[in-house]
Amino acid sequence: EAQKTRWPLPLQQVDLPLICSFYTSFRNLPAPVAHLSHVGEILGLSQSDLKVVCEIWNESSEGKVDVWELLAALALTSTAMSTPTKLTFVFRVWDHDRDSRLRDT
pLDDT of 56-101, one tens digit each? Predict the structure, then answer.
């Protein structure tokens, strides 16, 4: 039996077009770490949904989140995408120079 997701309802069925739109929005941020309230606006979350994300992400993060880590977590836990699609998406997010290789940065 599959484990039940903790993500709020709007983030439980993230499909490829939606996660790509999140990616595009996150690329426009001035830094890779952003306040969860700002990220919540980008993701279209209500205050109660944002509270759930804060609980998942951890209180010790001082209300901030690395948007690329969040995006990877959303992709990998999505129930709307196949495993190959999830892995391909996450790989492409982290392949900064688009050479099909991952390196330490």
Answer: 877 556 788 889 999 999 999 998 999 999 999 998 887 766 665 6
SS3 sequence of the chain = CCCCCCCCHHHHCCCHHHHHHHHHHHHCCCCCEEEHHHHHHHHCCCHHHHHHHHHHHCHHHCCEEEHHHHHHHHHHHCCCCCHHHHHHHHHHHHCCCCCCCCCCC
In angstroms, how far is CA 76 from the centroid of its own chain?
9
Q: State the sign of the Cα–Cα–Cα–Cα dihedral 88, 43, 103, 63.
A: negative
Closest by CA to 71, choosing from 12, 9, 5, 20, is 20
pLDDT attached to residue 1 = 41
